[in-house]
Amino acid sequence: MSNAERLRHSQKHLADTYTGYAGLPPLVGLHPMFEATTKGLTVAESVSRLKRLHWALRRLHRVFVSRVTSTPIYELKMAFSLHAHYCAEHIGELATRVREMRQPPHGLEVSPDASLDLFFDEVLAAPTPESLVLGLYERAVPAIVHALEDLSRDTNRLFDHATYRICRLTLVEMQDLQSYGAEAVRCLVSESQRAELQPWLGVLDRMLAAAGGLDGTKPPSGEAVSRQFSEPPYKYDPVPKRDGRFKDPYNMGVNAEAMLFNPEIAPLPKTLMLYFKRMREIDVPEMMASILAEAGDKPWEYYRDMTRQLWDEARHAMMGETGFVSLDIDWSAIPFNFTWSLGLNTMLTSKERHAVLFTIEQGLMPKKTGKEYEWKVAIATADPLTAMIQDFDWADEILHAKIGREWIVPEIGSQAEAMAYGDKAWSKILVDWKKWKEDGLTEHRNWWPEIYAAACRHWGIEPDPALLTYNTTYENTRADLKEVAF
Ligand SMILES: [Fe+2]
Ligand SMILES: [Fe+2]
Ligand SMILES: [Fe+2]
Fold this sequence. Notes:
By secondary structure, the protein is mainly alpha-helical. It has three domains: 3-38; 43-210, Ferritin (Up-down Bundle); 256-468, Heme Oxygenase, Chain A (Up-down Bundle). The protein contains 20 helices and no strands. α3 runs antiparallel to α4, α11 (283-294) runs parallel beside α13 (339-347) and α11 crosses α14. The structure holds fe (ii) ion (3 copies). Residues 281, 316, 393, 397, 486 line the site of one fe (ii) ion.
């Protein structure tokens, strides 16, 4: 028996026979003693894997954010918003752990491996929703899940506990991405599309192999793999796209605010305007994605906070969706215009867009026309779902106003200056109600009577004849920030 074997043998013996007081598990149950004495990575090995995971999540976050606007499928926009948020939350934790580990320079801002970047460049540039979901959910996300599983398995839970804990918690959400993604692939990618994309998936595999795996634990293949979709490099597409259920995207035929703020109108029909306004918030992630895609060099906390807000706005759209479904209303009969996200994304700078958002969200705070008022209307409808929607919408919008105060106000100056800057930026956006109609972009169809009648059928009541004739458009009340409330 060699010395090393003898040592291992005695460690095993000690570990097997060692127990805590009154049989309590030793080491707080993190490891059986034998494992604790024999397994683990060095600080340098742990840091090396953490850095690659950190970089991979940053790149993955970027893919999700960059593709929110131009991906037409609503469910994918929503999923990308959530998945970007999950990435953003964990990126900061991984970076913090790296900084704790005695290995400066941390190098968190530079790529740990050119082949790893090639891999993510390719996923980012996937040209269709089908190739994108395959690249994301059958390659990038599983590679991250795998690396997290390996690191939490390989490192010593006692010595490197913080790493173990971060990996384990990150894993929970990354596995959610993986299982949702598997469903997305199953629903969206046909066998023939998969067959067509198989060579590209092989390219992705070879890029990861050239990087020595996502976590760099395998010997790099040494192969120089050529780009396929990322030549020329991907360019963010700021034009919002929607799927076929979203019709008439220039329609500004029904003024939701004019009805909501009319004290003469009863609360119940206003339910529909609340749901409409919530679901119309689909344009906020479409717009915020452009801020993030073009923000440039900002502290990571900026990206984290803004991504949280982006996800909240996506949630608000889905809250509106739940409302319509609860009333058995086919929301695809309602036009949710995209003129706001289109205008801001194509005519303003990233800073201007953020200021417009801030100005609007500050405008939601007054009692009489803001979120509290909407919540009171919701309570008055006596529908618990509507009340819950507005309750959380209000809470979230307060957080968003705070995020704005933290990030865009200091960039511009005072709060008043930021508001004025946003106001001025918004005035650059042409909302030409008549011209859109003349150009044949929309008829500004009044969708209200048909949706109101459908809701009344669901409620089992007769429509109010006066309300059936509601026909107030956005023609004369320009969609100004002072009037458009989110
Ligand atoms: Fe909202
Ligand atoms: Fe908001
Ligand atoms: Fe919002």
